[in-house]
Design a protein that fits this description.
The structure holds two protein chains of two kinds.
Chain A: E1 6-17, E2 20-32, E3 37-41, H1 48-55, E4 63-72, E5 75-76, H2 82-88, E6 93-96, H3 100-103, H4 110-122, H5 130-139, H6 144-147, H7 157-169, E7 175-179, H8 187-204, E8 207-212, H9 215-221, E9 224-229, E10 232-238, H10 239-244, H11 249-257, H12 295-299, E11 305-308, E12 311-313, H13 320-324
Chain B: E1 9-22, E2 31-44, E3 48-52, H1 59-66, E4 74-79, E5 82-83, H2 89-96, E6 99-102, H3 116-128, H4 132-145, H5 162-174, E7 180-184, H6 192-209, E8 212-217, H7 220-226, E9 229-234, E10 237-243, H8 244-249, H9 254-262, H10 302-306, E11 312-313, E12 319-320, H11 326-329
Parallel strand pairs in B: 3-8, 3-9, 6-7, 7-8
Antiparallel strand pairs in B: 1-2, 1-4, 4-5, 9-10, 10-12, 11-12
Helix pairs in contact in B: 3-4, 3-5, 4-5, 5-6
The chains are: A alpha/beta, B alpha/beta.
Amino acid sequence: MRGDLLDVKDLKVVFYTYRGIIKALNGVNVWMNHGERLGIIGETGCGKSVTSLAIMNLIEQPGEIVEGDVFFEGQSMQKMSKDEIYKIRGREMSMIFQEPISALNPVMKVGYQVAESVSITNGIPIKDAYPEVFKILEMVGLDAKRTMKLYPHELSGGMAQRVMIAMALVVHPKLLIADEPTSALDVTIQAQIMKLLDELVSEMGNAVILITHDMGVAAEFCDKVAVMYAGNVVEYGDIFEIFDHPLHPYTKGLLMAVPKVGRSEELVGISGSVPDLVNPPSGCRFHPRCPQAMKICEKSLPPLVEVEPNHYVACYLYSQEGEKT
Amino acid sequence: MKIEVVSDTLVEVKSLKKYFPLSRGPFRKPLQVKAVDDVSFKIPRKSIFAIVGESGSGKTTLARTVLRLIEPTAGKILYKDEDLTKMNLKELRKFRKKMQIISQDPYNSLHPRKLVKDIVGEGLKIHFHMSSNEIMDKVKETLERVGLREEHMFRYPHEFSGGQRQRIATARAIVLKPEFLVLDEPTSALDVSVQAIILKMLKELKDSLDLTYLFITHDLAVVDYMADYVAVMYLGQIVEMGTKEEIFNQTSHPYTYLLMNSIPNPDPHLRKKKTIPKGEIPSSVNPPSGCRFHTRCPYAKKICEEKALPFVNLSETHFVRCHFPLSKKM
């Protein structure tokens, strides 16, 4: 076993649509230990959100996990019954979403929604859950007495995200999945939310998967990072290692494209565009856009291999098969 | 307030205001949303003037009002010393071809049922009364300029990716040989790898076609890459304005400083404790008294609540609207 909390092994997910079969995940490998913070970064359509949904076992029709498995604390989630999954989802792992206002139930007061979450986990009646609700809402920096009585549409984006964080953390999950928690928010509010999340998670010791397209957010929060492209993890490892010495041509390109305050060098983009996953390129899915593509890249998919301690990359530039061609 | 600039001015905005009425039903007096409240600036020819602010700061309203796509409530917009606000629509049309806009969302700003050649060529038909052959040649040339190919002329917008659509929008804007382009968050809907390419293209076009840009964005890192002059907006007002170097190296308004501090830095070695503004941006229906930022400002004193300040000159080009500008203290 590679990670004692979570091990995602060769996960393949497809979606059946009228246009054809979308091969959304093409053998994703990623793993983490208790208390670690993993960032999953990548651009639109790379499969970051599908990965998180698959980890939560939330892939539903027309989607399907066709291959691979997710091991949570060593147990195969594919082999679990529905009841066993219910015991894990929402208790051992919980999730916060990108659009906090639409993730909340619009016709229920905030206090009730958080209380529901408390009552289900602790097995107590909803009316007994309110003291706990009060405590957690104060903890996320809200005026608990007032906020409990509000409906979601009366909250600002920042407040709604705080409520979501409260709901997700009140169950003391072992794993918190945050799917683009701040990308709908302004930078100043984003900074507040990330700071809050950092403080709470440090205190409670949860492991976190942070899904983001923003290298900056990942750089400030995570211990480890997995870079995804078109349904594959192309690079995975320690965040310092990857940001200092990116190996995969896609990671290199991505880091060069990020504008930075005080950075004088020219921006370099990646030419071409993200492939259509109904008909993805053969072999390494990045090869049509890769400046260093070789013959073998078209033919077969490079495996994710450890090239330095704690630094994995899926690219033939760094393996023996690549050198032979 | 006066701004002296070395080069000549293409567009000057003088105490521009745009209030939107907010109806509260038939028996109550309507309120006003002060989206843009007394904004003045000058855009020197061939420069990139960036306006940066968070959502609700009024930057998009300002961009549209400058082109008179929205009628201003008060104020003047001078384009080469001619006042756009005084013109009737017929007179305005002559100026329309000199001023173009590229908007934020490339998915909604292109007509879904028109071919690319018609989208790009329509302005030529309207403003220059060209024949269809001339239009075709011109469209082809312009598409090549923005990195598209001839065969793209006969496709519909849905066949393109976000980055390519933004290229089409750019082609539509530059085909009329404008002098002034308003770019309203042109890359905020795009991924970073594509954003980098589009920003670079816009910069090159500006140099080769001698354009002047009004660049609206919420991203200070993009401002640093693109701009010559920067104005920071908060709740309908400009709080600080100056050359890029002044804004980034001698940051004076606490809001500008905190905004810069809030940007996540894509370098894990530079993690630091941050000072960030407390609370959230207040409503522009009923903005705070005095300095509008005082409710969130960590340095606010009593006077900030009571008295708003006009602009203070820090240098010939650097202005700040604050009782206690930071760069003076340091």
